Amino acid sequence: MDFRKTEEQELLLESIDEFFAQGDFDENYIQKCEAEQRPIKEFKLAAIEAGFGLLGIPEKFGGVEVDTQTLIMVGEQVYSHGSPSGLGALLQVDDVLNFGTPEQQKKVIDCLLAGDGMGFCLGLSEPQAGSDSNAITTSFERRDGKVVINGHKTFCTDADRAKYMLCMTRDFSKKDVPPNKAMTTWLVPMDSPGITVKPMHKVGHRTRSMCEVYLDNVVIDESDMVGEEGKGFFTIMKNFEVERLVIAADSLGIAVCCYNDALKYATQRVQFGKTIGSFQLIQEKLCDMYIKIENMRNFLYKTAWKKDNGMSIRIDANLCKLYCAQSGFEVADDAMQILGGIGYTEDHRVARLWRDARMHRIGGGTDQIMVHLSLIHISEPTRLALI
User: Fold this and answer.
1) Over the stretch 335-387, which tens digit does the pLDDT of each residue have?
2) How many CB atoms neighbour CB 380 within 10 A?
3) Which residues pair with residue 139 across a beta bridge?
4) pLDDT tens, position by position, 21-73
5) In 3D, which of 123, 147, 148 has the Cα closest to residue 136?
6) Cβ 161 vs Cβ 118: under 8 Å
7) What is the pLDDT at residue 89?
8) Nearest to residue 138, comparing CAs of 165, 179, 171?
């Protein structure tokens, strides 16, 4: 395995550094967007213009196809400057681009190019169906040549701003098949009669909203189906592995940003006549943070390398996401401790990144589900215990 970046990767990452060096999208910009509870639309449009805002999107749709290794490097690099990468949202859009009709694909691409990013939202989780997708109760049935959806979705990112929802439903008339084979996804217009959206107040990622969505006899057309009937669960699952690596990359980027801020502060803050970085307890924290970042990067890069080389990452992706999400939060927490009181105020970006990092241990699969999905394969030839 060669850990050296290619010349193209080096140039891409340098261009991201230059993009942020212009100062248009610094912490003041992020804080202003958070205070106004609005998306970072200007950043998304500028990122598209700079050439990295549509990475991972097929070239025929105006995007830039890249390998997994490059994708996670970009996620890390963007977040290391304190800005959300947004790559997870692009992977969800990719589901429609892979399985949707040309008309559906155009709708989603138009949202992306307008800088809306998630002018499209995902309707998967429900009050009784979080980690257990088989417990979904949102239903669809056919009436008079139309499709009628009833249900309740929760934790829907940007649903109050979205034009469309990729909505997972279940056909309860099929009682003789497993739940995951009775599910179908639909691209539901969010202005359809019968849809009620209620915002939820959350801790982090405040430039993006989180909502509950109620669907009461929402009527859509048969042409709104995304993919094949009964295969909706597998449509949504297409990008789960890479999405978890992107979350791991975001966690790594957060850790890098927090470490750099803490290190800089430790060399400037003077107490008892010395910089606090000269005290051994602070040195130990910085050392532990550095080791965690190196371990996160090695685990992440290795897993992405395996994906690009056609090797299974069914276990690796889950464990990588588990480790990076936990370690990323620990590094952010240690950075806050080194910063002391100023780190606990909303004047410093470490406080924001600390809030954002906590979500990565829940979104995309909780820590506990990552453990479960890894150990569930323990009876297979490649056992978790055999490394």
Assistant:
1) 999 999 999 998 999 999 999 999 999 999 999 999 998 887 655 555 555 44
2) 10
3) 150, 170
4) 999 999 999 999 999 988 898 999 999 889 888 888 888 888 888 999 999 99
5) 123
6) yes
7) 73
8) 171
End-to-end CA distance of the chain: 17
Q: Which residues contact 113 (CB under 8 A, 6 or more apart)?
A: 48, 62
Q: Which two tokens stand for residue 53?
A: 């805002």
Q: Which residues contact 298 (CB under 8 A, 6 or more apart)?
A: none
* Interatomic CA distance for residues 330 and 352, integer angstroms: 14
Name the stretches of the chain with pLDDT < 70: 1, 116-118, 377-387
Could you give the 3-state DSSP secondary structure of residue 14? helix
What is d(CA 294, CA 273) in angstroms, rounded to the nearest whole number? 32
Cβ atoms of 152 and 215 within 8 Å: the answer is yes
**Polymer length of the chain:** 387
Q: Is the dihedral of CA 213, 214, 219, 224 positive or negative?
A: positive
